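Lab notebook, design round three. We kept the backbone fixed and only want residue identities now. Task for the bench partner: fill in a sequence for the structure below.
Input structure tokens:
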């Protein structure tokens, strides 16, 4: 196990969660918090310049998903550990994160002590996951059809498309341009390999996303 301080960054777009993690880790002996980032792009720029031991990663991030971020980090920086810290308990999401190379998977309702212990455990090359989540991924249950990785914004727009509202209404509700909505709709249809909104909704329902 490392005898020097563990260099940790946080990638979390919810300010109140990031501030809580910052408060915990900044006061923990043996851990040096070197950065807090709201998105994957900012974190990747930091990793290019600064040695880092471990990333605490939210899965639902704007622009680039946590799955894609984890996969990219693992391909470029094999020694960096990644712990997913999220509210997602869906079996498909957990398995996809593990497939992306995550070294641990924790829920945001864990205690300070559990978080700190998990960090040291992963640095010691031991995988960490809450026992309840292990039960989920190893349960036989009904497996949903696989679906493509979506950004947080794509998930939002998919949900609104499912309600049947117009592009203009979606743009107004999300405070973005209609051109941006159209771009996301096209990306969604490409990802699901469909040609119209009806087929998109059908595929999303089959995947359990609506």
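Proposed sequence:
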């Amino acid at each position: 196990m490392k005898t020097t301080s563990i260099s940790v960054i946080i990638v979390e777009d919810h300010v109140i969660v990031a501030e809580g993690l910052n408060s915990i880790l900044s006061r923990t002996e043996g851990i040096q918090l070197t950065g807090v980032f709201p998105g994957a792009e900012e974190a990747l720029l930091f990793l290019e310049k600064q040695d880092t031991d471990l990333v605490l990663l939210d899965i639902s991030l704007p622009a680039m998903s946590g799955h894609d971020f984890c996969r990219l980090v693992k391909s470029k920086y094999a020694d960096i550990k990644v712990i997913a810290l999220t509210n997602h308990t869906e079996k498909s999401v957990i398995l996809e994160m593990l497939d992306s190379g995550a070294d641990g998977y924790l829920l945001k309702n864990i205690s300070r002590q559990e978080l700190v212990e998990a960090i040291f455990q992963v640095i010691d090359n031991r995988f960490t996951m809450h026992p309840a989540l292990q039960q989920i991924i190893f349960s036989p249950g009904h497996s949903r059809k696989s679906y493509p990785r979506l950004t947080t914004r794509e998930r939002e727009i998919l949900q609104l498309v499912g309600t049947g509202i117009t592009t203009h209404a979606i743009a107004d509700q999300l405070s973005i341009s209609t051109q941006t909505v159209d771009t996301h709709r096209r990306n969604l249809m490409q990802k699901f390999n469909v040609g119209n909104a009806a087929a998109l909704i059908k595929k999303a329902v089959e995947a359990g996303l609506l």
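Keep this in mind before ordering anything: The two ends are 44 Å apart (CA to CA).
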